[in-house]
Amino acid sequence: MTTQLLWCEIVHTRTGVERDTVIEITDGVITGVRPDTPAPPPGAAVRRGLTLPGFANAHSHAFHRVLRGRTQAGSGTFWTWREMMYSAAAKLDPDTYLALARAVYAEMALAGITSVGEFHYLHHGPGGTPYDDPNAMGNALIEAARQAGIRITLLDTCYLTGGVGQKPAGTQLRFDDRDADGWAARASELKPAEHARIGAAVHSVRAVPADQIPVVAAWAAERGAPLHAHVSEQPAENHASLEAYGKTPVEVFDAADALDPRFIAVHATHLTDHDIARLGSTGAGVCLCPTTERDLADGIGPAGELSRAGVPLSLGTDSQAVIDMFEEARAVELDERLRTGSRGHFTTARLLVHGTVLGQAALGWEGIGRIEAGMAADLVTVGLDSVRLAGTVPRLASESAVFAATASDITHVMVAGRTIVEDGQHTLVENVAGELAASIGALVE
Is the pLDDT of residue 79 over 70? Predict the structure, then answer.
């Protein structure tokens, strides 16, 4: 049994901000939280600034990190962006994906992310030929997370068509398991680990026929695993779904018995009132990815209506346009202000809940996301002495961080009691920027 002590200057808890707090950690679990301790006890590590629960990135495509900056020249649409994404995907193999994902997950760790949900559909070799290990790409992602020191929920994704009624072609062949039973047989061979959970995903109604979705939903239900899907990200997706099935994407998933508290609709930007009510009544969640949704001109989702309908919201970095959970969190409120013309829809505490405990739950991780006894010691400390945060009032430290901090303000990150970021440096990956540059450079001209 190993016990360690942290003395934290300011701590965000679900009851408010506490000062001069000792956090006791035993074997990676918080066993005590004692505020109003003016001086650090002997042997305690000192954390100046604001300490928060670790962030959960509930929706990630690690290989999209290659595209950062490269899709910003000129104009275009989601669909032209997608062609550039396919070009990046075409060049990856298990070794290059391990190197890239390790660096991307280390970048996430530096941004305070302690768990990632990897929405993984790049399964096979060129032309769709399976690797000798059919899960070589998924296993590379699991190993990358281990090396970067963070948790992963591998959301192994069923992807069968190139559009409603269209056969996959080109790079899409690397995603294709032929049918849902083939997907299930392959996904069943994936093995969880101490840092890794296995979940399921349906790419979208564009990529999985309605009659195949129940197979994926049943596979997840049998295992009590998370089930995620891109839902109503684009108006064109809704139009195709209505034309093919006479149903919105939410209604297609409902008919497949997929909607329940383990289901997460990713994006959910273009929902009907009935869609929102049905998500709320079934306990299903929504993962918002504001930095990607605005980068791709997808639109502003109905966060306020979803919240009022009782839909739990989580956050994701999706295309890695930027990896910054503060930016994702504040965008939920700020985008809602733009959409409605009024302020004050989500409190700071609620935005942090979206990025922490609800995100962890969306990925199947329970007992993570709050700073209190019995919870995993996933902790993030934000320095308050940068030009962005200098002058912060301690009682408003959480507000200052959520609405003004960036990922570069994070000084320390702990996952299950293990420090993986110390004084702004990753303790396991020596040169994160260098590894990102090398792994991306190997894939682009």
Answer: no
